[in-house]
């Protein structure tokens, strides 16, 4: 499995992960669930009206962390906005329940992909393994 697929499969299996951003010198963290591999990149979804979106516009550096079955992954890098309709549509196809709130053509739906990113898989049983995304 490709690295990015492996990370996305882990996030899918974990169901939820925590996304950290920065607001000035204040860290902000919240639960997220969306993850999609598109053209070999790891995408997440949010709404442009949310504070998280504004924080990423001001400073794209972000980390996510998920824990599942004794293992955890941390992905760190930059989250870059992608306004292409087809990526938004693919995200909404993976998460049809989001279609109640979002559409690929509204002004709010936002997808972002990880750039300059690395993922570290950790557990108490084995040394950490870091891979480039
Ligand atoms: C399990 C779970 C998964 C979530 N997944 C997402 C998600 O993928 N995208 C999103 O924008 N909000 C998601 N949310 C809602 C955000 O956590 C919530 O809107 C949060 O307030 C956004 O952060 P902000 O207030 O700093 O903008 C999720 C909430 C939960 C409980």
Describe how the helices and strands are arranged.
Elements: H1 3-14, E1 17-23, E2 26-32, E3 36-38, E4 41-47, H2 51-58, E5 61-68, E6 71-82, H3 85-94, E7 109-123, E8 129-132
The chain binds flavin mononucleotide.
Flavin mononucleotide is lined by residues 16, 28, 30-34, 45-47, 50-52.
Bound molecules: flavin mononucleotide
Major pleated sheet: 8 strands, antiparallel
Low-confidence stretches: none
CA(first)-CA(last) distance? 13 Å
Whole-number average pLDDT? 97
Shape: globular
Description:
This protein has 133 residues and is α+β, with helices and mostly antiparallel strands. 23% of the residues lie in helices and 47% in strands. It has 3 helices and 8 strands; from the N terminus they run αββββαββαββ. Strands 1, 2, 3, 4, 5, 6, 7 and 8 form an 8-stranded antiparallel β-sheet that branches. Strand 1 and strand 2 form a beta hairpin. The longest helix has 12 residues. The protein is globular and about 45 Å long. The relative contact order is 0.22. The structure holds flavin mononucleotide.
Concise account of the structure shown:
This protein has 133 residues and is α+β, with helices and mostly antiparallel strands.
Key terms:
133 residues; 3 helices; alpha+beta; binds flavin mononucleotide; eight-stranded antiparallel β-sheet
